[in-house]
From TrEMBL:
Entry superkingdom: Eukaryota
Protein name in UniProt: AMP-dependent synthetase/ligase domain-containing protein
Lineage, highest ranks first: Eukaryota, Fungi, Dikarya, Ascomycota, Pezizomycotina
Boundaries of every AMP-dependent synthetase/ligase domain copy: 8-130
Family annotation (Pfam families): AMP-binding
Gene3D superfamilies reported for this sequence: N-terminal domain of ligase-like (3.40.50.12780)
Length: 130
């Protein structure tokens, strides 16, 4: 996405539709703006099938907006990767249909999720000084 359109939710949603984009990777707050202020009708009818959210805590409002989009073929994945890497070390699909949007995290509006699932052919090690 060209830098000049990065903050334009309508331009992003129209680009997803016009170019038949099937997978988008973004921060939850960025996607929240697409879903709230973009062209939801265009997104609903688009080829968008896979949503990858990571880089910051996932707010309950994101799940609510995905549910309200009402796009049954869109799968939402919560991903995690360390800042020092450019890949996701863990991935977990979230069921946002009928999701309980109550605040369950320590910060209001944030949800608590496990660290997700390690993809095939990946290893995760938790190390200490020993």
């Amino acid at each position: 996405m060209p830098r000049k359109f990065r903050g334009d939710a309508r331009a992003i949603s129209e680009t997803i539709t016009r170019h038949n984009i099937t997978c988008a990777y973004y921060t939850p707050s960025e996607c929240l703006s697409w879903l709230r202020y973009g062209d939801s009708q265009a997104l609903r009818q688009s080829s968008w099938k896979t949503a990858l959210a990571g880089g910051e805590p996932l707010a309950s409002s994101v799940l609510k907006e995905f549910e309200e989009l009402d796009k049954d073929d869109l799968r939402l994945h919560h991903i995690y990767g360390t800042t020092e890497s450019t890949f996701c070390a863990t991935v977990m699909e979230l069921d946002y249909i009928g999701a309980n949007a109550e605040d369950t995290g320590k910060t209001a509006g944030q949800l608590s999720y496990p660290a997700s699932v390690v993809p095939p052919n990946y290893n995760v090690y938790i190390l200490d000084e020993h």
